[in-house]
Amino acid sequence: MKRIPRMTAAALMLALLLSLAGCGSADGKTHLTFQIWDVAQRDGMQAMCDAYTAQHPDVEIEVQVTSWGEYWTKLEAAGESNTMPDIFWMHTDQILYYADFGILADLTDLYADEDPSYYQNHFSDISVGNASGTDGRVYGIPKDKDNVVLVYNMEMFDAAGVAYPDENWTWDDMMEASRKIYDATGKYGYMAYNDEQLGYWNFVYQNGGYILDPETNLHAGYTQSATADAIEYYVNIQKNDWCPNQNYFAETSPGTSFFSEMGCMFFEGSWNLLNELKNFPEMVGKWDIAPLPKCPNPASGDGYGTISNGLCYSTAAKGRNLEIVKDVLRFFGSEEGQRIQGESGAAIPAYLGQEESWSTVFNTFDYVIDVQVCYDQFDHAVQYINNASRRKWKSNAADEMVKVYAGSQDIQTGLANMQALADAYDTTN
């Protein structure tokens, strides 16, 4: 994602006119705005809000949906003009930027009177980490958690006489299955496309490599041997006839190819599974999910790993309804609030013990995909890769990967360039 552009005065005025900030009204109620970017989760978010306002009839909360790109443009403009929404989603890619500049309210002590160790007792270290600033303080209530799974077409496996993938599958098994399926059906096998969380990051960590040194979270590891070997393996997948190249993916996403039955396997985020069941009813019963195949001979570790991210609920440090909003956020982070979110199908709750409430909606389909895979994979989860400097170099690093995939730059040169980009912002060097 590219750096958010600064807004013009006219755009700032537009942001004001769009009423991003909550305010009181003639009816005597406090009206709050809640900004999100995923329309598929609107109903789930509204269900949480309605549960809160049922207990607090003097408060109304309006859920507003803005597209991903527009969301961050508006939010930065609102931050500069002190017109932030009362409540808003915060992504791991952005939280350090907003927290470190003092834009987000510090929520570390939100539950101090109830339980000083509330976050540690009810959320995983990864969830708390994704909601924290560089200073280790908490700037958002953990909302959800996710991981990456293998989506596969059962009919194509059957046609090729290949057993379905399971927890023992390796990269080599996936490659061999792809070849057999392509030979038997003419359809693509595993579709490896240029992505981080849904692509090569998983291979890197399964092989025991790293994008950022897990000990310090400062030093990049693109040229570290385990990292380089995994990236080379992943990039070379597209050299097989059964895998489309990146020119194909420029026009057709792996998901589009899969659900049009042109390809058999791809890596998908748990957050998209319910939408895909709803949007492609003709495909229900034809596909399922499995754990990510593991590295067969890792440089270190057991070969397992899946990148896990998670959003959080945040508010502005200078919000006009701060105390009321904090009470709403306290509810959003409660067992009840997280259960409502899960049962709505919005996302896997971050709250420990409520994860499987997310299964409720899946159980309504004629074929129930194996969402237990998502829960089990948290045992092998790797926290989403981020630090305070990454937003300054990640786009340029992504550009280097594009060159590698296109063949205009060899892998070793690309990795060296990516390492140099990250090193330039490593203040410890």
Q: Proportion of β residues?
A: 5-15%
Average pLDDT, all residues: 93
CATH architecture of the largest domain: 3-Layer(aba) Sandwich
What is the number of strand segments? 12
Output the CATH homologous superfamily of the largest domain.
Periplasmic binding protein-like II
**How many angstroms does the end-to-end distance come to?**
26 Å
Secondary structure class reads alpha/beta
The CATH class designation of the largest domain is Alpha Beta
How much helicity do the residues have? Answer: 40-55%
Spans of at least 5 consecutive residues with low confidence: 1-24
Largest sheet: 6 strands, mixed
Shape: globular
Number of domains: 2
Number of helices: 19
What does this structure look like?
Helix 2 runs antiparallel to helix 15, helix 7 crosses helix 8 and helix 9 crosses helix 10. Helices cover 42% and strands 12% of the residues. It has two domains: 183 residues, D-Maltodextrin-Binding Protein, domain 2, CATH 3.40.190; 200 residues, 3-Layer(aba) Sandwich (D-Maltodextrin-Binding Protein, domain 2), CATH 3.40.190. It has 429 residues and is an alpha/beta fold. The longest helix is centred in the C-terminal third of the chain and has 17 residues. Helix 2 links the parallel strand 2 and strand 3. The two termini are 26 Å apart.
